Amino acid sequence: MGDVVRAPWNGYFVTGFDACSQVLRGRNWLAPDLAWQERQDDSKQWDAIATREMTTTLARLNAPEHTCQRRSLGNLFDRSTIERLTPDVERDADRLLDELAEKLRWGEADFVSTVSEQLPISTVGGWLGIPPEDYPHILEITHNQVFAQELLPTKSQLGVSAEATLRLRAYFTDLVARRRAEPRHDVLTGWIHTWDAMEPDRERADEILYRLTMFVTIASLETTATLLTSMTSLLTEPGRWAWLRTYPEHIDAAVDEVLRYDPPIHINTRIAAEDTVLAGVPIKKDSMIHVLYGAANHDPRRNPDPGAFDILRGGSHLTFGGGVHYCLGAALAKLEARTLLARMLDRFPTLHTVSRPVHAPRMVFRRITSLGVAL
């Protein structure tokens, strides 16, 4: 239908790789922030509690506020940080695979609840100092909160998301307060010191710290869990699994092909900062531009024969976004994926799926709720 397709509202779907890349990286395309939302005629969706709460997080901010908050975080997962986190990820992966092995002794097991949802929360939870006994609570409310980030959420979904948002705010506000009262040698304590130096208003500093901590946590969970599940579903096809066991040097390439072939997020929205033209289509200021990651990654002009899953493709993808909003946790997600994959290949030579992945009814965050595996 074209690189830019009119949506049945004040928006456009962008499907081509180059056009999507232009939107993600260009300065003329903004996140749908509060200022834009307040200019809209139909404000019902934007007035929802959960929607407005997420609009104050890093992903929905524009310069200069986005620039300030992102710089305060530094390069979250640079090479040295990834090196420090690697032993922790390896330990958590081994522990979860021990649990999977025990379940597989008796037949089938659900990979999602046993492994792929647990590794991301263990990783980011340990990094931020979240008590392990709180992990189930965080997972539950995160699953419910993301309804507010859907393209067309229903009234009931927004209600579920509103309750989850209030619980997230209560939890992470308390976490910041506890860490302020009892500082540690950890990331969150470092953020507290940074914002105390930057912001003299302690109440405003704590509000920003709450938003940053909450956003980094929930952004690390559903997307990475879906990546780990998709990776297992796609690669445990007998021929691919056996080939990767023989050629483990291609594990990184396999992870990248999973990211290209089946991205955890399918839609990201930007706003036209001014009247412009995109791929030959006139776009008016304030129009919504919906970047379709899956379509872009399957653009045959960028990745020939895009429907084929090819570990040695050496292609490219936009799954982590681009420009100033490039995914903060890209390196961490890849670390978790390649660590888990390497260990599974070594421990489970005959691992295979016994059911297709079951997806939650969503358009944006493609959460997989279950995947049956066996030996």
UniProtKB/TrEMBL annotation:
Alphabetical list of Pfam families matching this protein: p450 (PF00067)
SUPFAM superfamilies, per database record: Cytochrome P450
Record InterPro entries: Cyt_P450, Cyt_P450_B, Cyt_P450_CS, Cyt_P450_sf
Species for this entry: Streptomyces anulatus
The organism's place on the tree of life at top rank: Bacteria
Protein name: Cytochrome P450
PANTHER family given in the database record: CYTOCHROME P450 YJIB-RELATED, P450, PUTATIVE (EUROFUNG)-RELATED
Keywords, comma-separated and alphabetical: Heme, Iron, Metal-binding, Monooxygenase, Oxidoreductase
Family assignment from sequence similarity: Belongs to the cytochrome P450 family.
